[in-house]
Amino acid sequence: MNIAEIARQxxxxxxxVSRYFNNGYLSEEKKEAIRVVVERTGYRxxxxxxxxxxxxTKLIGVILPKINSASMGSVVSGISSVLEEHGYKxxxxxxxxNPLKELEYLSVFNKKQVxxxxxxxxxxxxxxxxxxxxxxxxxxxxxxxxxxxxxxYHDDYHAARDLTGLVLKRGSKNPGFISATLQDKAAGAGxxxxxxxxxxxxxxxxxxGQYVVAEFNVLSGYAMAGQLLEKFxxxxxxxxxxxxxxxxxxQYLKEKxxxxxGEIMLxxxxxxxxxxxxxxxxxxVRFSYEESGRLAASMxxxxxxxxxxxxxxxxxxxxxxxxxxxxx
Length: 328
Hints:
Elements (H helix, E strand, L loop, with lengths): L2 H8 L3 H8 L6 H14 L5 H8 L4 E6 L5 H16 L3 E6 L4 H12 L5 E5 L5 H8 L5 E4 L8 E4 L1 H14 L5 E5 L5 H17 L9 E3 L4 H14 L5 E4 L2 H13 L9 E3 L5 H5 L6 E4 L1 H18 L6 E4 L1 E4 L7
Parallel strand pairs: 1-2, 1-3, 3-4, 4-5, 5-11, 6-7, 6-8, 8-9
Antiparallel strand pairs: 10-12
Helix pairs in contact: 1-2, 1-3, 5-13, 6-7, 8-9, 10-11
């Protein structure tokens, strides 16, 4: 079977069959005629032949920092829903929060193995910026803002400021912060700056130094909660840069017999499943992770299919979700 034979049996032109397999415009009548023949014969077009003819692989490279993260899973779900509508497939690369692996995968995908890249970015080193500026395929950043680049990101700064404001409103006089690496301009620097500015607005400038830096996991949250309380034993609240860090901190407090929220209030970011199953349930920030994936994929599809060139950026909102961990 080939396109000419499919066209003959369906009673349409070769061009109509080609448009059918490339998601081009066709009348419903012709689509149905071709579909019937395709299903009857079991015909599948050759990916290699399509690539040679169209110069497109119909593949999108997706680089993410941690595949087992709930938030990353939501982003990927959003990406997948849009790519499927447009007939594209994903090639996923899990960097395990290693910036060197990010550079490696950007280079691999840049060698025309994919038609475009969606990069769930963490940090921007000079090497990242140089490579991004020289990519031969279009790239969309998710989760970070970078000037003159197509990007979808969250309002981490104001989310952290509002979350800290809530904790202060609930009576905290001496909060501490478990931060992500400050090299991460969103989850790290953005959220930490929001925490500090909320303190400054309440005349508590000196407390900005009450923080430690953790990795993006429960075990690190556990360990760094211990370090934070060793340095600042009189804390009455701990705000964590992620829900997973907060889950680790909660376990540490539980083992030490420290009541939450009676003695120390606790809060995080992400509104993950963890926030709802912890006891007490965790006050957190909800971001539109799945929507960010859909928007990034739609932006990339627009660039690939319509040739839009001017860089676009979109900042998404947030909701502070108060639960039991800050309600005294």
